Amino acid sequence: MIHAADYRMRADDCARKAAEAKDDYHRKNFQQLAVMWTEMAEKVEGRGLVAHNDIEDALATIESASQIPARGNR
């Protein structure tokens, strides 16, 4: 089982990357990921479990975001 603290660490990491992003495109994507991880933490804290689909959706979002080339590489 993934604990809320794990999700919060991932949210913090994404928030840090958003702050360090060199362009708005990547900044917004990392901000959205930070929100998503925070929501996952809140679900765990509020209900005690996260649906399997929530985890799969989160991983798919992260995977697709990591495959998007930087603007200069498109």
Whole-number tally of structural domains: 1
Number of strands: 0
Mean pLDDT: 80
Q: How many angstroms does the end-to-end distance come to?
A: 38 Å
Q: Counting H and I runs of at least 4 residues, what is the number of helices?
A: 3
Q: Shape, please?
A: globular
Q: Output the helix-strand order.
A: HHH
Structural class: mainly alpha
Radius of gyration based on Cα positions: 13 Å
Extract low-pLDDT stretches.
Answer: none
Beta content:
under 5%
How helical, in percent, are the residues?
A: over 70%
Give structural notes.
By secondary structure, the protein is mainly α. It has one domain. It is 76% helix and 0% strand. It has helices spanning 4-20, 24-47, 52-66. Helix 1 (4-20) runs antiparallel to helix 2 and helix 2 (24-47) runs antiparallel to helix 3 (52-66). The model has no long low-confidence stretch (mean pLDDT 80).
